[in-house]
Amino acid sequence: MRLQAKLTVFSAVSKIIILLVLILVLPTLVNQVALHNADVRLQDKEARMYQIIEEQGIDSFITEETGDAYGSYNLLKEEFISLEEISSGRVHNTIENSLRKVENDIVEYRVLSSTFDLGGKRYLLEIGRSLATIGDNSQALQHYALYFLLAVVLLTVFVDLAFSKILLQPLTTIIKRLQRIEHPTTFTPKKLKTSTDDFLYLNNTINDMMGQIQEAFQKEKEFIGNVSHELLTPVSILQTRLENLLADPDTPEPLLVKLVDNLRTLHRLKSIIQALLLISRIENEQYLKNERVDVPQLVNEVAEEIQERAEAKDISLSVQLTGDFVFIPANHSLLFTMLFNVVNNAIKYNKPSGNITVAGNAVAKGYQLCISDTGVGIAQDQLPHIFSRFKRFHAPDGESHGLGLPIVQTIARFHGVALTVQSELDKGTTFCFTFPQRT
């Protein structure tokens, strides 16, 4: 999972947990708030009642007609106010829940009780509000609070997602740059536009590391090229001298056999040097790509060239091509070598009376060419190393694979051709080349 997705998931999960906790405590919290507001309202009404009594006198409530008590309920029995004369010893100054009988109905109220003295008499003022009304208000508050919390969580999740995307944009830039690297030589150090020190440090570290890799790679290419070039001259001289000895009629018969063996060794050494030199020249871009190559026609040329080798080993070579495809810009000679090496390996490591199939067809934005054989195959643990020029591995018959496949990969990379390999021991190997469509 990507870092941005992890941050977003963490943010969302943490907010959901917080939301669930709030939902659990929300009823209690809102009820307390509703009761507090009800108490404040009752206290406000108490203050207003005292103000009215002070201004108009107690007689405006308690008269001869009402006796020693006054009571008033609103239409829906949601609130009431009562005022009555009590004995001088009683004192009530509380806010509590209390059941009251109103017109044969029992109603639970939140009641504020307050005792005061006036004109030598003691009075009890009670102001009540229905708990059902308070509960309705509490329920409404819970709904609004829940909707608000949900909106806040959703909003913060989207804000966090946008912020994390902006925050991690430099990291995304670094990853995309690294994904575009097809070869160490194609990397170009760039500065990163960000104020985050961690990303700046990461970018600078990658630039320094890639610089060291490029330097080491360049030295390795120069070394291979120079050594290959220097070795080729003395090897050619030795080969010429041995060939002259073979051609000399005075050379003894026993020595001729040894000379032939030495020539084979020199020929193998010369092939290795030439392969290394070819790889070095390709990587140093000493070959031009200025030709139009008809891929189906190129395959037929390779098949025609190698047909005799296949017949000599009793190998059936089948070419199945559909559609036309011209690959540009390209180097015909290098592409010929690339396909020739793969088909030649398919012959070399095939089984007696085996088959080789070269199939090509147009695909989205290009042309795919697959070379399949019924040979000895390659072990899965060796597949990642078959293109390495520095790691030697052997076929099941014990013979080394040499530098043919590193050459194939180097040419494919030089042309931007995608190369994949699938293989299974004792069943065969398939090399697939995907040539990109260019205009």
Which terms would index this structure?
5-stranded mixed β-sheet; Heat Shock Protein 90; alpha+beta; 5-stranded antiparallel β-sheet; Helix Hairpins; single chain; about 55% helix; about 450 residues; 8 helices
Description:
There is one protein chain. Helix 4 runs antiparallel to helix 5. The protein has 3 domains: 3-162, no CATH class; 197-283, Helix Hairpins (Orthogonal Bundle); 291-436, Heat Shock Protein 90, CATH 3.30.565.10. The two termini are 37 Å apart. Helices cover 53% and strands 21% of the residues. It has 439 residues and is an alpha+beta fold.
Helix content: 40-55%
Quaternary structure annotation: single chain
Mean pLDDT: 84
Main sheet characteristics: 5 strands, antiparallel
Global structural class: alpha+beta
Give, in spatial order, the strands making up the sheet with the most strands.
1-2-5-4-3
Contiguous uncertain segments of 5+ residues: 396-401
Extended strand count: 12
Report how far the terminal alpha carbons are from each other. Answer: 37 Å
Shape: rod-shaped
Helix count? 8
CA-atom Rg in angstroms: 47 Å
- Beta content comes to 15-25%
Topology pattern, helix = H, strand = E: HEEEEEHHHHEHEEHEEHEE
Number of domains: 3
Main location: membrane
GO molecular function, one term: phosphorelay sensor kinase activity
Transmembrane segments: 7-30, 144-168
Protein name: histidine kinase
Task: Give a short overview.
The chain crosses the membrane at residues 7-30, 144-168. This protein is an alpha+beta fold and 439 residues long.
What is the topology?
Elements: H1 3-56, E1 69-73, E2 79-86, E3 94-102, E4 105-118, E5 121-130, H2 131-167, H3 169-179, H4 197-247, H5 253-283, E6 291-294, H6 295-312, E7 316-321, E8 326-330, H7 332-348, E9 355-363, E10 366-373, H8 404-415, E11 418-424, E12 428-436
Parallel strand pairs: 7-9
Antiparallel strand pairs: 1-2, 2-5, 3-4, 4-5, 6-8, 9-10, 10-12, 11-12
Helix pairs in contact: 1-2, 4-5, 5-8, 6-7, 7-8
